[in-house]
From TrEMBL:
It comes from the Bacteria. One of its GO terms (molecular function) is carbohydrate binding. It comes from Halanaerobium salsuginis. One of its GO terms (biological process) is carbohydrate metabolic process. The chain crosses the membrane at residues 12-30. Keywords: Hydrolase, Membrane, Transmembrane, Transmembrane helix. The lineage of its organism: Bacteria, Bacillati, Bacillota, Clostridia, Halanaerobiales. This is Chitin-binding type-3 domain-containing protein. GO terms for cellular component: extracellular region. SUPFAM superfamilies: Carbohydrate binding domain.
């Protein structure tokens, strides 16, 4: 009997041991699963925290590229209020995204022209950091060649604006102008600016706090105890504003549209809910100025077709710009020590070879009848001065360019290209000597306009001292155009990869379906029809800075390079 009891006791002990083991295993498995779930959630949160830090870093890089080092020097003129708060170190959230990013060291200590900034991303209690180092000597502070258009004039004069866009014209890129009023930038309903617009317009955005007024002695104050108000009750003061009842109402003045806030005529106030606005009324909303297209109540300016910004159809922001001045290029003296040579023409010859292989001064050079003038550079600078350069169905190509070959043309009185003439468009050995913009530098000192029409092609740089320039009729230009003349007209089916048009004294007019890529710097600008100006980054190595500007002016224009040249990013835990 005792034996049986002992066996039962032993079995019970074993059973308890088994249950304990099983329970331990189950607990361990549950704990492992819970740990895995927690670990996965933590990894996701860490990843999201990193994304937030990276978003903050990219925002700061964008602001630095746009406004330069002044964002670290408490100069916030070009920034929105949200970006200003971000630069000052306040937390910033992304729309529809939990967590935030924040600059953790907004004191911006500058050492050796560098600023180091830490960006914190935080999500669900987990933090990630990204560090940035900005080389302030590499910031061009949004220099002139980073825009599709810079218009130097502050006023168009008469009835003409500084910038005019009509028809379905389009500017793809940022615009900066010294224009001092919104009406100096005219954009037709079908025209479009895909980029930001910066004007030298000093008017500050008006907020509700700016326009509140104190109650004057003896004025009526709204009171619920008064009961209903009627228009005959006159002007009532309430919470910093004066109102008048539009009809019988028991509502508070800011509760619905039964009241009309009394806004002085001609002043642009902030937009108010429940306020009725008439066609032409101007308001401020989110630091942008809008004008009512028709009578409206409770339509928010940023979300309604009832409103348009003071400059319509701008996809980006409209900002204030400090007045910008850029140097005038120096037109050179023509060389007077070249060997005098006879007129050069291209009559029919059995060989069909026409070559210039030495520097020289000519009265006339005329290339006609679909013949080709080959200029031998001999791996050096070839200098040719000529009073009249005429290409009538003629071609100029360069040979033996090597690494240092370059053609400098000084044209004194007349420069014409007609038919399908071209300069540096064809190459005598295209496979080994591809054409480059800086292969040719042409200086033109004449009074007569330069007309590039038909199917002409010019591949190089040109500097016009005083004449107008007309490009049209399907011609093509690739290179930098520098002008001190009064007008540049680009029209027709022209394709112009200008790189840079530097013409601060000129009115530049683009029309008739022309397509222009690069940067235009003009006094004033007009674009019409189905025409496009598209910003493309320029290779500044091809721009003849050293020929036209002092070293100081060159540095000013280049701005020390682009903002990303010496930008270092590192990652912290």
């Amino acid at each position: 009997m005792n034996y049986i009891k002992n066996k039962q006791g032993i079995a019970l002990i074993f059973l308890l041991i088994i249950l304990i083991v099983v329970a331990t295993l189950v607990f361990a498995l549950l704990k492992s699963d819970l740990f895995d779930l927690h670990f996965k959630d933590e990894m996701i949160s860490q990843q999201k925290a990193f994304y937030l830090a990276d978003a903050g870093a990219e925002r700061l890089i964008f602001l630095f590229r746009k406004s330069g080092k002044k964002i670290f020097l408490e100069d916030y003129e070009d920034l929105t209020s949200d970006d200003t708060d971000f630069i000052k170190g306040k937390k910033r959230q992304l729309a529809d995204y939990e967590g935030f990013y924040q600059i953790t060291n907004p004191d911006y200590s500058i050492e050796d022209d560098q600023v180091s900034v830490d960006i914190l991303g935080s999500y669900s209690g987990l933090d990630k950091k990204i560090g940035l180092t900005f080389d302030l000597t590499s910031s061009n502070e949004g220099g002139p060649f980073n825009n599709a258009l810079f218009a130097a004039s502050s006023s168009g004069g008469g009835s003409e604006p500084v910038i005019a866009m009509s028809g379905s014209a389009k500017i793809d890129g940022d615009i900066k102008t010294n224009a001092t009023a919104y009406n100096e930038v005219s954009v037709d309903p079908a025209a479009q600016i895909d980029g930001n617009l910066d004007l030298d317009y000093s008017e500050e955005a008006v907020t509700e706090a700016d326009v509140k007024v104190a109650k004057k002695p003896g004025d009526q104050v709204w009171s619920a105890a008064h009961g209903a108000y009627r228009p005959s009750d006159g002007i009532i003061w309430y919470n910093g504003f004066y109102y008048k009842a539009k009809y019988y109402t028991t509502s508070a003045p800011d509760a619905d549209s039964s009241w009309s806030r009394q806004i002085p005529a001609g002043d642009a106030w902030p937009w108010f809910k429940n306020q009725t606005y008439n066609t032409g009324d101007e308001v401020w909303y989110n630091e942008q100025k809008y004008v009512a297209k028709y009578n409206t109540t409770n339509d928010k300016p940023a979300d309604s077709a009832a409103w348009e910004r003071m400059v319509r159809n701008v996809s980006g922001s409209i900002n204030n710009l400090e007045h910008q001045d850029y140097p005038d290029p120096e037109f050179p003296d023509f060389p007077d020590d070249l060997s005098l040579r006879s007129d050069f023409t291209t009559p029919w010859t059995e060989s069909g070879v026409y070559t210039i292989a030495e520097d020289g001064q000519y009265n006339n050079i005329s290339v006609t009848s679909d013949r080709t003038l080959t200029i031998d550079l001999n791996n050096s600078t070839r200098i040719i001065r000529v009073n009249n350069l005429n290409l009538n169905q003629g071609h100029i190509v360069l040979t033996n360019k090597g690494e240092n070959g370059r053609l400098i043309l000084y044209v004194g009185d007349e420069f014409t290209m007609t038919g399908s003439s071209d300069i540096n468009y064809l190459s005598s050995n295209n496979s080994t000597e591809p054409n480059q913009i800086d292969d040719v530098m042409l200086y033109y000192a004449g009074d007569q306009a330069v007309n590039l029409g038909g199917s002409t092609h010019y591949y190089g740089n040109i500097f016009i001292e005083k004449a107008d320039l007309n490009i049209g009729g399907g011609s093509g230009v690739m290179g930098n155009i520098i002008s001190r003349g009064s007008a540049i007209n680009i029209s027709g089916g022209t394709s112009v990869d200008t790189r840079i048009i530097y013409a601060l004294d000129s009115k530049v007019d683009i029309s008739g379906g022309a397509y222009v890529e690069g940067t235009v710097m003009a006094n004033s600008f007009n674009i019409s029809g189905g025409t496009t100006l598209k910003y493309e980054p320029s290779n500044l190595d091809s721009f003849p800075f050293a020929d036209l500007f002092t070293p100081e002016e060159e540095e000013e224009l280049k701005g020390g390079g682009t903002a990303q040249d010496n930008l270092v990013k590192w990652y912290n835990n």
